[in-house]
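Work package 3, deliverable 3.1, input record:
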Amino acid sequence: MQNFRFCSPTEIIFGKDTHTTVGKETKKYGSKVLLHYGGGHIKRSGLYEQVVSSLTDAGVDFVELGGVKPNPRLDLVHRGIAIARDNGVDFVLAVGGGSVIDSSKAIATGALYDGNVWDFYCGKAAPEATLPVGVVLTIPAAGSEASKSSVLTDVEGGDKRPANFEIQRPKFAIMNPELTFSLPPYQTACGAADIMAHAIERYFTPTKDVEFTDRLCEAGLLTVIGNAPKVLAQPDDYAARAEIMWAGTVIHTDLFSTGRVGDWASHRIEHELSSINDVAHGAGLAIILPAWMQYVYKQDVDRFVQYAVRVWNAPQDFFDPEKTALEGIARTKAYFKSIGLPVSLAEIGIGEQHFERIIGNCTKDAEGKMGSFMRLGDDDMRAILEIAK
Amino acid sequence: MQNFRFCSPTEIIFGKDTHTTVGKETKKYGSKVLLHYGGGHIKRSGLYEQVVSSLTDAGVDFVELGGVKPNPRLDLVHRGIAIARDNGVDFVLAVGGGSVIDSSKAIATGALYDGNVWDFYCGKAAPEATLPVGVVLTIPAAGSEASKSSVLTDVEGGDKRPANFEIQRPKFAIMNPELTFSLPPYQTACGAADIMAHAIERYFTPTKDVEFTDRLCEAGLLTVIGNAPKVLAQPDDYAARAEIMWAGTVIHTDLFSTGRVGDWASHRIEHELSSINDVAHGAGLAIILPAWMQYVYKQDVDRFVQYAVRVWNAPQDFFDPEKTALEGIARTKAYFKSIGLPVSLAEIGIGEQHFERIIGNCTKDAEGKMGSFMRLGDDDMRAILEIAK
């Protein structure tokens, strides 16, 4: 186990009807709020009205900015920053999923920064201050509601980049599983895959002696694997929705990677897929993760055996560890397929003509190599994309 | 799953040599520190000198109060409060295990309270403010380093009582597993049992639909169960010490009981054992827990089957669930015995003559009943003590 620091101070307010407390919770931190959200979904569902009522009842003044799209955009963030400054905003309230939260995090730090907020995403600067951010979560997937992470896309520059700053953890996250009942099946499945990826990419580590966090990752994976089919079969299964929602948050607080290095190569490759054709992040991960596993498993067959046996209940062949390892990978891929996700690049219209762009973008900021479980160079990535074809 | 609020903001600084950063960490919160500790152990080990050096190097001024005993006492807390007030202390630094931390929490809230700090422990008042508390942990057991809990004993009144206040969570916990190498085997085993109890008493819940937190509890239990024998065999096994230390903290932050009710009857009964003869808390729990299980398991045989199979790898008899449930309980008891702990009241010199006092004290503040997995009245507790004889 490596030395580590860990602090996850986001207050979680979880359960039925909790979204109606948003005004009261917001008032603890701000009096002039930027209400930030996506498209029409929260208006159609009535959530928008309920949030506005709660803010109004609590005497919280607000301005608003909708229009966040999946893979949130830098240009909208700049508009949000301008609105925040012009209106003396002192709190950003995200109502939505990971894209809305990520956009809110960027606005909240950008509003207090003299330079271009993009600096935080391309490694030029780190935010020293931020407006507080609160969340009403509607999509369990990105884990952004309690994480230090966010991802932003500069459409003009054709660039999608992650940032990780402790200062960007939200103050509170209000999580009512009922708000997720209306998620379409495909989006539900994509969310499950994203959550699973957050556990899997922590799980496959080169760090030794990490039993507790291994078991925590397994706990998270087993929970999501078991409950995603339940909510696909019955979208208003509160208990199953709640399991997925809570696991999704906890997995991405970093508790599950304390003392260990993760390997985020699959996430990084997936970001390139999304930037090519806006494929949902979880769907892209369902394609890349099994291919990545297939290519890297020989780095640590024992770990893949543990994964196969504990996570997928694969029968262990004690005399042929590779067989067991491969069975775990096969089950991963079969599972993604079973919940309705693509498992090949062909299914999302990405072909060999895109490979060099994907590889080039991935390695250009990584000094030619990326990943930690296995260090990947251009040829390695090409091989992974070939497997994923 | 029940609705819940959860926030665990304690900053964890974990790993080798981390205790040497205590001065720098303390300085973020205070400039006049009460350094609070137990007996001679930290002086003999050199830790005291290292902490003093670190504080001095960071320019932190301090006064000190040693002498905390296991089952920390109200009278010493009163002395600490007086010292804190007389010296304008603005931060309490606990260097030790659960007793030192609990004593520090009480001093930190008591120093800002006009009444008697005991009010917080007998339900008369809740603290509205506290001095910040920091921790250098030397004993993985109580989980107090990041929890809202503390326990205090009023020797004069013959009373030992717990308190749970969010405000009492420490600001930081510095955790270097190397500091635990010198723990004697018995104390190491007692710590493991206490940590296991924190997971077990969350695990046996009447709340339905709590899969994720079930699995988290199992992850914690499996980690401690596997690693305690390793450190008993080799006290300087860093990896195993680290697993136990980190699991012990996380289990007691309340993350593992989010959305579910726990059953703390065994802890409550154990407090009475300790108040009779100062038996180590973990040893008392090793006696009470299996007896409690034996008495209550019919309330939810399925849950005990899950516990037996997942935590103890017991062979499942699909046609006789009770047999499997009982096997899990038998393995729990056998395990405690195997790590050198007592498993009967006779071994610690507590006999039938004490039973009525134990029962009376337990139920007097519980309106005649306590526990939630099964509501226990006087007769139930008598039966549990009989099993534990």
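The mean pLDDT of chain B is 96.
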